[in-house]
Here is the input.
Amino acid sequence: MLKRISWTVVDQGLTSATTFVISIVAATSTTEIQFGLFSACLATYLLCQVVFRAAFIEPLVVQYGGATTDTLHDALRTGRGCAVVCAVTVGLLVALVGFAVGSIGSMTLLAASITALLLSDLARFSFIAEGRSHYAALTAFICLSVSGAALLVLKDLAATTPTVILACWSASALVAAAVTTWYSRTEVTFRALPAWLRTHRPTMAAHLADALLSSGSRQLAALIIAAVGGLSTAAAMRGAQLAMGPFTVLDLILGTLVLSEGSRIRRIAPQRFATFTLATSATVALGALLFGTAVSYVPRSIGLMILGGTWDKAVQIVIPMALLVSANALLLGASAGLRVIGRSATSARFRAVSAPIVLGAAFVGVTTHGALGAVIAQAAVTGVAAAVWWRYLLRHAAPCRSATPSEVDLQQAERGCI
Here is the structure.
């Protein structure tokens, strides 16, 4: 298990490093308007990624992670086919939007790029579901190496535009996915797509609702803080988030670990599931607190070198930001745990209740005490929400220990729980 977890962490780290390198190259080699265009393209991809992962990849990982070999391979073959169709459909929709607004060339490239990046995402998470996380890490490594080398050459030739950067990134991701898929002899089938969609539609809908509420509330909170507090407050918030950067990435790693390894543990040793989920979440939360405390003692000269003039305001809220990241880690662990035990619909209902409260807390906090108030208010509400999530998870993790996640969903449906 430790080996799989290590490779999963490496995979997530390499994937995040790729996005970071691509963004740095775009920021340092393009004009302000061009970088804004690239940022819009990146935001579009990230939104599509949230939908794609929640609707197709997460149900695949949760329901079949750790299953018997034949069951797992049959499910993955059909699940991959469904996800491929979804990725191509998303690309076509983006292309149609480009045709409607009269920007056929750039939007067609964006559509092709999103499709390629989603297919790469599918390849990595399929390997994680199979317990072959080293192939997922290899896919991320190839993508980082190829895109990094190509961008260095293009930067020397002064040929880095948003179009070229996006094309380079997506082509590298597609090559990496194709190489590892071929090398690992991965199979894809499209024959059982209608049956797959009928069987997994309730789970897919619940996962999608939970993910959209989670991501949407965070983005809306950021917009509220910027609108009420102004650009200076927004810059301080962004600076503090960058200072906590490694643990922002670990939040993503945490969700992947709980979904993949938690599903496997619940199937093999269900009595260890709650302990594993709680220990993993608490480790990340404690690490975030210690890291934020250490960042607050960084000399001003180093801080200015990293964040420029934003450092002075960002460092004032870095410890409250560490509290917020820790609370988010606990909340994310509990939410992923609920998905594993087949309670994704319950998690979505919790999100629907907590999201407006978080937004209200952000508004009140930034109105009364600026960036500091906004962070503290969000941290407090998120901490309370995490406690409620965990109380529910620990209460319901024990029943039906021998059941698979899909069986739990069926039992809940029969009882009217979903």
User: Anything to note?
Assistant: Residues 399-418 have pLDDT under 50 and may be disordered.
